[in-house]
Amino acid sequence: MSRLSTLWVWAVFAFMYLPIAMIALFSVNDSKIMSLPFSGFTLKWYAEVMGDGRLGGGFLTTLSVAFPVAICATLLGGLAALAISFYPMRGRGIFAVLLLAPFLIPKLILAVAQLIMFNETGVARSLLTVIAAQTVIVLPFSTLVIASVLIRIDRGLLEAAADLGASALSAFRRVVLPLMANGLMASWVVAFVLSSAEYVLTAFVSGRAQPLSVLVASDFRFALSPSLNALAVMIVFGNIALVALAELIRRRASKTGA
């Protein structure tokens, strides 16, 4: 039974990562046609991506959206997680349902609804509308990540701080905030990755300045260039590096705290 379970796990991993591995292989294939057999090894597609000013502009636009979205989602998610899982709040069940609703509603419906709202209120589509729209759909993820950290904090620490004369604000600043720092960092990383990869919502509410996800999707409609494979590999490894950096910071913070 254990061998069958192990085989099943490896089959799931193969199903998840084999397409990415194929993209990585075709990104170094010296041929414009993505088919077997391989014509030879080359890195010219990576050089082509690095020299493409259009994709570079889209990448900078993505960063200008992902950073604010990650910050806003982490701040709002932290407050929401405190209200739901740590501090008592009336009607927090209804609040939690309303907060997590974007997590359950299909993105296409949310995108159309937000587009109609912006049009009816006279708000021109721009990067600000993209930031606002993406924050709405990323917020549930940030809240859940931070809440998963808060529920493990011992409430007795607050009582001990109060016994030592600390006010509620001081206890939060000196006890709760340091303990939830890892959750805030993890939330920021998750929000940044989700924002940089979001396409459906971005395609509806973006204006003339389009993030990288929209540009790449537009290119895929007309031509399947090997340079897009190289770009995809760079994005995947960039996200992996970001997660690895966050984990390294978390471990160093844990050792320092210990």
List the helices and strands and how they pair.
Layout: H1 2-26, H2 44-50, H3 53-86, H4 92-104, H5 107-120, H6 127-150, H7 156-163, H8 168-179, H9 181-197, H10 200-205, H11 212-222, H12 226-257
Helix pairs in contact: 1-12, 2-12, 3-6, 3-9, 3-11, 4-6, 6-9, 7-8, 9-12
Written description of the protein model:
This protein is mainly alpha-helical. 79% of the residues lie in helices and 0% in strands. The chain is built from twelve helices and no strands. The chain has helices at 2-26, 44-50, 53-86, 92-104, 107-120, 127-150, 156-163, 168-179, 181-197, 200-205, 212-222, 226-257. Helix 1 (2-26) crosses helix 12 (226-257) and helix 7 packs antiparallel against helix 8. The protein starts with a helix and ends with a helix.
